Structure formats: structure tokens, C-alpha cells
Amino acid sequence: MKKLFLKIVFLAGVSLVAVSCDRNLDEVNVDESRISEPVASKLLLPIQYNMSAVNYMRANDFTFDIMQVTLDFPNEGNSLSRYYITENTGAGFWNNSYKWLMQINDMKKAAIRDNDVNYQAIAMVLNAWVYSNLTDTYGDVPFSQASQLDEGISQPKFDKQKDIYIKLLDDLKAANSLFVVAKPLTGADLFYKAESDVNGITNWKKFCNSLSLRLLTRILKKNGEVNVHQRIQEIVSNPTVFPIFQSNADTAKLNVSGVAPLLPPIARPQDFTTGRAASAFFVETLKANNDPRMALFFTQAKNIAPPSANIGYKGAPSGYAYGTTFDYQPSNMNQNLSKAPLNILVYPYAELQFILSELAFKGIIPGNAQTFYESGVKATIEQWGSTMPTNYFANVNVSYNGTLERIMLQKYVSLFFVDQQQWFEKRRTGFPVLPNNGGLLNNGNLPQRLMYPPNPRVLNTSNYQAAVQQMGGDNINIKTWWNQ
User: Fold this and answer.
1) Where are the beta strands (DSSP E) in 135-265?
2) pLDDT for res 37
3) How large is the average pLDDT for residues 137-148?
4) Which of 226, 101, 109 is nearest to 169 (CA)?
5) Which helix (H) or strand (E) holds 32?
6) Across-strand partners of 141?
7) pLDDT at position 423, please?
């Protein structure tokens, strides 16, 4: 398992005061490691960096395996790529998310105290980003009472996913109305440079409303129970009030320059490729597309027999049958994907285009599903610095064919390295159709959620038990609310 190396960014403006010999014990016993009066502008940068790094590693360590992008290789034991899940599979993700949610909460409170509406709105957007990923991973999670240790709540209740979604969507709508686009931020902003870029706050608004569309599309099945279609149409029909991403330039991403403290989450590039291979499904999907990024993403496979010649791009089947032998060394991931400079994708413009394509395909919004689809495919290629090939859509494997399956397959490709979004969308739609190569566990069934990690089970037992009863169990085959 790859290790998560989080580089904590020190908060500027916090000075250490030496203890003089004439200070009394009350003065000495103050915990000066904690900021008693946090400033919102100093909290944004470490939240952005560290949660982006957490999600980058979540894609690398979890989504790649479960969604047949990579696999442990060689391996015939219990592995994630075979759907072997334990209570610890998401423990680090849970702990890190709640750690930074507490910082987001502090940032929001500081912004409200100082009447800084832009930081307040940004905190609400970041909160929705992190919490949506948490609830989509586990289902019901601590929410309304979380991050309230100062209020004496150390054992928060688990809120229902429906209630979490409704509150997050309401918060995003409220955040959109709070932003003051003519007012720059007073501190560094890693996503949009809103301290200096005149379009920075407008881009935050676009992120806010595009995130709303991600969440609303996730709960399409619950239209009627929640006013999903109405909220979608409200955003799409009024771009002046609810701006959304218009190009790759609007993508929410973190540029990792390689200059401290903006260092790659993976400290040693060799750790990115040790004991793994590229999955045949992902490799063959890109090969069928004649994707120009093959060399950017993969190494070439080699014959095992001397002289170990290159045989092109060829992955290993995820969950291959026990006893399978290989006469080739499969393609692996290109180590450059873990080296600076790199962009950590938080929410790519391409994803939004596929969302709009699906919504148009289903008749929920006006517009041409094919146009949105082709825009998404093009943006997917260009977001990695590649050039869209001429006549790319003449290829029958990538041309729009009027099916949701085609839209979702190319959306899957576009979500490469975007936290756990491939998994969430596969659970929601059933696409892409992943092969069972004979060695998958759990009867070949894709896990629908993760089990709660040990911390809440041991330290918040009564609320954990109530949540388990509320959800119908704590196992990987329980469907979360939006997928029932």
C-alpha cells in the first residue's frame, strides 16, 4: 500500500513566544500550539493542499484498484483489486477528512466573525466538497454535530445521507449568493489565485454551482423526494446568477510545483509503480480510443523471454483467475504522474460536460447531448496537455452513439485521478461495465460502500450502532440512500 505523505503547510503570521522566567504558571500552561483566534485567510491554503493530497492518494490507493485502472501485480492473495475490503480500507480517508473539516469549520467561523463573505462562501463550498465525498463513501456519517468538540460534543450522531445532501445543496446555493466577485481574497488561494486574479472569485462561483450539479446528478433517482430536476434547471437556465465552468481554464485543480511546501503527495516516484500493473480494462479502453495520452499514462509491456522486447501497451486483467500465468511483464503507470510539476484535479471541466450530456440525454435540460459529450471528450484530452487528434470522433469506439453507456465510459476516462468519482458513478449508473476475470471476491459484486472504520465504532459506539441499524447493516453491499 502506498503511503500518504501529507506536508502540513505552516500558517503564516503565527509567532512563537519564548517563556520568560517571570511568567506565572497560568501563562505558561496556555496551549500555544492552537490558534485561539484563527484568521480565515491563513486557513485556506493548508486546507486546499492537504485535502487535495488526500484525494489524490485516494484515487491512487483505492479508486485505481476498485475501478480497474491498476492492480497489485503479481498477486493471488486478498487485494483491493479483487474487492477485498476491510474496516481499515477507508480509515485514513475518514480520519483525514474529519481533521480538515474541523479546519474548514474554523475558517467559516472566523470569516463570519470578521464579516468576510468570500471566505465564508469558500468554506461552505469546501465543506460540501469534502462531506459529499464522505457520505458517498460510507452513507450516513456524523455531520450536524461533527467538528463540535469546543461545544462539548465528542460523540456526534450520524446524520442520514438524505439530510446531508439537502443541507449541502442549500449551503451551496447560499454560498453562490454570498460571493462578492469584485472583492479579492486577502490571502493565498491555491485553486484560483483569487488574491490576485480578477476572475478568481467568479471562478469560485463556477466551482460552487458546478459542484451543485455534481451532487444533484448523483441523486437523480430521488427526484420527487428532493426537487432535483427543478434545482438543476434553475442553475442551467440562469448562467448570470449561477455561473458554471465554461472551459478547462475554470477547472478546480491544485498545481503542485515541486517547490516546498507544494510537493507531490507521493515522496518517492518508485512507490507509485512498485508491485502494480496497469489494468487491461483501462489500457484497452484508451487503445480503442486511439487516445494520444498512452505514453503519458503508461509504460510499454515487455516479453519475459529474452531479449525482453517491448510489445506495446498491454495491461494485466484485474482480478485475474487464480493460477493464471503471464508470458509478459504488463504495462505499468508512468512515474511522471507522481512527479512535479503536476495538477491534482479537484473537479475538472470535462466532468461537468459529461454531466450536462447525461442531463440533456435524459431530457432534464435543453441542449444537445452529443455536443456536450464531444466537448467533454475534447476537454479530457486537453486537460492533460495533449492535443485533440483530427477526426477523433470518426473512431466508432469514441463517437457518440446515443447511449448513456457511451457517455459514462468516456466520463470514466475523464475522471482518471479524480478522488473516488469513478466509483461513485459506477455505483449510480452501472457503467462502465467492468469484466469479472475469474478472481473477484464478494461474488464479483462491486462494493457499494465502505464499512465504518474502527474509530467511530470504538469511540462513538452508541451512535455507530444507531447508524448501522438505520442503514440496514455495516457491510459493503448496503446501497446508500441515493442508490436505493
Assistant:
1) 141-142, 158-159, 252-256
2) 80
3) 96
4) 226
5) none
6) 159
7) 98
Cα 311 to Cα 141, 308, 317, distances in angstroms: 47, 9, 16
- CA dist 197 and 183 (Å) reads 11
Q: What is the dihedral of CA 286, 291, 297, 299, to 10 degrees?
A: 80
Instruction: Please list, in sequence order, all residues whose beta carbon lies within 8 angstroms of the beta carbon of residue 230, skipping any fewer than 6 positions away.
Output: none
182-233 per-position pLDDT tens digit = 999 999 999 999 999 999 999 999 999 999 999 999 999 999 999 999 999 9
Pairing of strands 276-278, 70-72: antiparallel
**Could you tell me the residue ranges of all domains in the chain?**
40-266+338-483
Q: Indicate the length of the chain as a whole number.
A: 484
What's the CA gap between 84 and 64, in Å, rounded? 14
Beta bridge partners of 278: 70
pLDDT tens for 256-286 read 999 999 999 999 999 999 999 999 999 999 9
Give CATH for domain 40-266+338-483: 1.25.40.390
How far from 362 is each of 122, 220, 253, 357, 403, CA to CA, in Å? 31, 10, 29, 9, 10
C-alpha cell, 460? 462513538
Spell out where 104-238 has E strands: 141-142, 158-159
Distances in Å between the Cα of 267 and the Cα atoms of 2, 4, 93, 314, 479 are 10, 9, 19, 27, 36
DSSP for 422-447? HHHHHHHH--S-----B--SGGGPPP
Q: Are 9 and 45 a contacting pair, CB within 8 Å?
A: yes
What average pLDDT does the segment 167-186 reach?
98
* Residue in 457, 337, 432, 480 with CA at minimum distance from that of residue 66: 432
